[in-house]
Amino acid sequence: MTRSVTVRAPGKVNLQLSVGPVQEDGYHPLATVFQAVDLYETVTATVRKDEQITVDVAAARGAAVDIGAVPLDGSNIAVRAAQALRDAFGVTDGIAVEIVKGVPVAGGMAGGSADAAAALLACAEAWDLGVGRSQLDEIAAELGADVPFILHGHTAVGLGRGDQITPAMTRGQFHWVIATQPHGLSTAEVYGEYDRMIESGERSAVVPEISEDIMVALRAGDAELLGDVLVNDLQPAALSLAPHLRSVMEQALEAEALGAMVSGSGPTVAALARSRQHALAIAAHLTVSGTADAVVTASGPAPGAVVVG
Ligand SMILES: C[C@@](CO)(OP(=O)(O)O)[C@H](O)COP(=O)(O)OP(=O)(O)OC[C@H]1O[C@@H](n2ccc(N)nc2=O)[C@H](O)[C@@H]1O
Ligand SMILES: Nc1ncnc2c1ncn2[C@@H]1O[C@H](COP(=O)(O)OP(=O)(O)O)[C@@H](O)[C@H]1O
Where does ATP bind (predicted)? Predict the structure, then answer.
């Protein structure tokens, strides 16, 4: 019988994204707090008896994701994940990877990283490699800075490139409104714009440190406090490249969102609500405002990559 394994992995928002000056390796030191939210990528890995790694992509039902922007060749990060695992464990079989996307593409919510994390776990199970989570973590960090967090999910502090993960204590659920745009932003270009703003003196870089206010708000499950202390150092760079995002945040605040920010490198905007009902009200207001391509609600923390079938 052909072995087939399905894994689900979440998207994320960064509650804090503090960015230091670029290092010699081209990466930026981060102090970030990730929260996984219940928008999911679903990845099925089916063993092939030839040596090929193939990939197929579809949108999840009702999800506003631009699957046309996802590569179907060896540059797909799920294919890179399968290849990395095969290299590390000397696997000879191939694999067919099917991705069903529920996270915006190039939206600053780590959809590709979720595909990589899910593909790692699904392929490891399908090939029956008996791999431990710490081995997966190592390969995950080589694939992308966000991938180790997505494997673990929930809420976590990320240091280094964002790939050194420590779980954070939280209470209850936080309710989010996620507003997407028709076109994505390149993460590398947003970091590049951040560098330009530092060099030109428009902004100054700080030594990134985790915000105690955010930790207190999370431990208390206090959404009002959290809304006041959300911080994203990439936001000015994302706004410089996509100035219309400012009006999305303004509309969310007009609907009494507790806080609104660009998610990671953008252009998705995440707004924090008091409750699920309030999230639906903000979503309705944002939809009517016409400032976003699509608006959905989500809640976090959500679990990391997990086998579902
Ligand atoms: C900004 C963040 C915030 O969580 O995610 P997104 O919002 O894009 O999802 C991350 O730092 C993105 O993580 P990820 O998308 O996995 O990054 P990678 O694939 O490793 O790197 C893509 C590019 O981003 C830049 N990069 C990434 C991480 C980092 N600490 N410093 C960087 O300068 C580098 O230019 C790199 O070439
Ligand atoms: N499986 C994948 N899903 C989405 N994008 C992918 C994938 N593999 C490679 N990519 C490329 O990575 C880019 C960033 O993808 P994504 O992870 O969705 O965004 P972000 O880094 O903003 O969270 C895309 O524009 C696309 O070119």
Answer: 104-114
| Whether this model's pTM surpasses 0.95 | yes
Locate the domains of the chain by residue range: 4-168, 174-300
Residues annotated within the binding site for ATP are 104-114
**What does the pLDDT look like over 207-251, one tens digit per residue?**
999 999 999 999 999 999 999 999 999 999 999 999 999 999 999
- Is 66 an annotated catalytic residue? no
CB 304 within 8 A of CB 40: no
- Report whether 125 contacts 204 (CB < 8 A): no
Instruction: Find out if CATH 3.40.50.2300 is the number for domain 4-168.
Output: no
Distance in Å, CA 129 to ligand 2 centroid: 27
- 174-300: CATH homologous superfamily? GHMP kinase, C-terminal domain (3.30.70.890)
- The mean pLDDT of 80-107, rounded to a whole number, is 97
For 139-171, the pLDDT digits (tens) are: 999 999 999 999 999 999 999 999 999 999 999
Q: In this predicted structure, what is the pLDDT of residue 206?
A: 86
**How many Cβ atoms from other residues are within 10 Å of residue 211's Cβ?**
17
Crossing angle for the helix pair 111-126 and 133-143, to the nearest 10 degrees: 140
Q: Are 308 and 6 in contact (CB under 8 A)?
A: yes
Exactly one of 66, 115, 146, 233 is catalytic; which is it?
Answer: 146
300 contact partners, CB below 8 Å, separation of at least 6: 13, 35, 36, 37, 38, 155, 173, 174, 176
The pLDDT value recorded for residue 125 is: 97
